Amino acid sequence: xxxxxxxxxxxxxxxxxxSMPKQFLELRxxxxxxxxxxxxxDAFPGMEIILVFPEAYMDEGxxxxxxxxxxxxxRLTTGGATRFESVQNGLHLVSEPSLVAVHDAVxxxxxxxxxxxxxxxxxxxxxxxxxxxxxDSLRRRVGDKSEVIDRAGVVQIQTPQTFRSDVLLSAMAQPxxxxxxDEATVVEAAGTSVHLIEGEETNIKxxxxxxxxxxxMILDRRPA
Length: 224
Prior knowledge:
By secondary structure, this protein is an alpha/beta fold. The protein has one domain (2-220): Spore Coat Polysaccharide Biosynthesis Protein SpsA, Chain A, CATH 3.90.550.10. The chain is built from 7 helices and 12 strands. Helix 1 packs across helix 4.
C-alpha cells in the first residue's frame, strides 16, 4: 500500500524565544526539519512526503530542500491557524488509498525503526499512536489545592501518528474543536478507536532552548 508522510513544519517557534521558526534552526549543521526528512526517507525511500510550511517561509523551505535533497520531489503546502488546519492542508494532497503518518517536523530524533513499526501496525490495525509511560509523579490543581493523579497507565503521546487513509481523512473532515490536540483525538471524536504502539524516550519534541542541547547529546551517542 502507498505510504505518505505529512510533516508538519508550520509552527512559529515562539517558545524558543527566537524570530525564526524552530524547524529551521540548525542542528549539527543542518536545519532541524532536514534531519526529520532524512529519517523518513531512510525508512521508506519511495514514500511520498508532504511538507506543511509557514507561508512566510515557503521559499526558504524550497531552497533548503533543493540544497539537501537535490533531485527529490516533495509536495508542499502552507500551514493554517491551528495544527488541525495545517494537517488538513497536508491531507488535501493525499490522493489515493494509503497509509498516512502525521509527524512533527521538530521531532527530528525519530528513528527508522519506530517509523516502520507505525506503518506496519497501521496496516494491520488501522492506526498506530506512539506512546511512552510517564515516570514523574503527577498532580492536578483543584482550586488553591492539588490532588495526586495515579500515573499507572498514564502515557505521553508522540508522533508519527499513523493511520489508514480512510480512517484519517474521514475523521479530519469534522469541524474543528479545541479539544483536538492531535490526530488521535480527532479520530476518536469520529467514533473510531485508536491503537497505541511503544514510543521512544529519545523521540523528543524540540520546544524549549534546552531541548536543542538534549538533541545534540542524543546525536552524539548515535552511530554516524
